[in-house]
Records
---
Amino acid sequence: MTEKPLHLYRREGAYIPRVAAVHDLCGYGKCSLGVAIPVLSAAGCDVCPVPTGLFSSHTAFPGWYMHDTTDMLADYLAAWKNIGVEIDAIYSGFLGAPEQVDRIRDLYGMYPNALRVVDPVMADHGKVYPTYTPELCDAMAELACGADILTPNLTEAAIILGEPIGDAWCGTDIGDDEARRMIDALVAKGAKHVVLKGIQRAGESRIRNFVGGADMDVVEVSNEYVPYMLHGTGDLYASCLLAAVMAGRSLEEAVRFAGDFVHDAMIVSAQQPEFEARGVSFEPLLGKVCDLLK
């Protein structure tokens, strides 16, 4: 183990790194590519989207429409290869079908030295998201085990580990030992670094995230708990974390930055009309992402 700051990406001079963002695109409701593109761009990254699905709105709204892009992705990525696109990080989130995991593996083969960041977006509070089949959850779990940075919540971590979810996992109250056990188990399955998100203990007004890996001690980072739920905060957290990493910050610094940014964005969001349906508002805070490059 080492106590030295762990840097997973070294920013070199004026070079602008390219990030393949493998996420869905949502027309209304702030999440996925609608979050990843502006946040990573503000951190001085060239964001190259790989759309895994097109949504009319996020799925908390009734009557949403989804277009599955699976059939186009092989040709889409082959065209990248044909023109010599270079990629420094591969960041995946929401997936629309199990076959899309194969396309991410194609990207890993095309760019073997790229940083692999997996936000295993599939469940929360003991419930799997409505578009996720058991086959897609299994495929996501396999993908997660090859990540350089894996960012699950407790329910997603349990799915990846093959542990039961449901009523017992509707809460987020676990102790330090259990958090460390889950991180160690995910590392044992192949993830190099794990950020376990969203732990809130009974009677506390803090929300905790834990980060650990094969080459670092487990560190706890906490923020004030904001007592309302907003769609897109998980995407914002993972995007901010990667933004900080690609700006050359250490992994622990990135975890702290992401937690602080999401907390502040939730405060800003509450000032907007219909904020709980609209999703997380982060736009006025993008200057903080730009400041990562100073």
---
Amino acid sequence: MAEPLLLVNLLVSPMVDESSVPADLLRGCLSCAYAGKRKKPAVMDLLITGDPEITKLNRRHLGKDEATDVLAFDDGEMEDDRLRLGDVAVSADTARREADRRGVPFDQELLFYTLHGLLHLLGMRDDLSSDRAKMHALQAKAMRDFGIEPAAELVTRLEEDQDE
């Protein structure tokens, strides 16, 4: 079997139940989304962690003393003949809380955040609501391209972003 265009080095923090993390789903969908955008072999690191650790990362790197859903740190270096895209950190605590609040499956909420991080590594920004809506639409497309129909509540959130 051919190696995927995007290698995802997945690290699950000890504060997260590793069995709750759909590793194959995350790696597969991220690889599919990347292959739809780029043709150069690449690698990225993905950390699934909890609110305490992502708060520390947010404070250290962005000066914000609060939990967030996803952080992305681009790199652009080469690693073993692959472009090193960078690092993405996702809070499983935030994903669980938001999934429960919105009635979305946890796996989809977590996947949504990881795809968002990948898009940041590829240079997309979400400072403006129109940019955020474009990113969210690409995240939903990546899910569909991988064979996952986003939950209705996730689609509603995307439509709300477009209305802002």
---
Amino acid sequence: MRKLAALFGFILFLTILFGCEVENCPPNSMTYAHFSLVDQHGRAFKSSDTISIIGQIETDVVVYETLPDGTQQSHTVYDSLVNDTFINREVGANSFKLPLSYANQTRFIFVYRGLNESFRGEDTIDIYHNNIPYFTNLDCGTMMFYTITQTQTTHHRLDSLVVTNSNIDNYDKENFKIYYTVITSNE
């Protein structure tokens, strides 16, 4: 009986010792780029337009077709554009948090709709980055961090894009400022 109690105590000790390693994982294992919307003077503002943000990547896609005899045939469609809507019709936003691609380039399309629905437009933001896998331990897995190397934008509504912090990791900090020309009644 004593051996059984000692064995049970030893197993409980090992469970506590090795089972608690998950607590060493960071509380936020997701990495997002933080965008702030500012006016031409650098002051934060809330957009009166409805904004949708679409992520777009270029990749090769495998397509499967079912033939008349019931067999499947696959072929690759090269350089396909794949879209995903991250933010759909946000009103009054002053900042966004968006994920980056595991490829070396990420494209975001900002789609604007005015209050009277007659104005529609869009801007494209291309972000080029180096990917840095970050490994903490086996229980936590790998996170992806990024270093921004270059950006390109269109200028339909957007005036400019400024990189405020080129290192994107799992800490909550601003990485980009998006400048818009805002006309106010007191200017």
---
Amino acid sequence: MNYHHRILPFYMTGSVPYFMQEEDSVLRDLEYLQQLYPAQAKQLQVKVSSILDKMDYEGSLIYDEYPDKWQLYRLKDSVITILKQEEEEKEDAEQGPPEKWEWMGDMVQLLIYYEIYRRRHGGRHRFIKF
């Protein structure tokens, strides 16, 4: 059979579909902007990412179509607890004012949402795009 003269269906002749290119460019933009985070936000992002690595499995709440809001809040509280424990283990660390942890909780919550988005659309378990 001569494969050089094989006719392809029209849908196989084009390049990557436009919506896939658009999503890839969005993820590239998000990753670039993430590199511009302040130092403390980068450190928090690394911690959030490592914690979500443990939750990155099929059937995990991070891959639910509509993740439960309260479970995400509990996840944020777990991350904050871990951060507080790590800070207490430091020799010369002060616990800091409660406002610090309130701000930190808000930042961790945002980073969790970002990380879930990234994993759903561009992470290791990239969904099949049609």
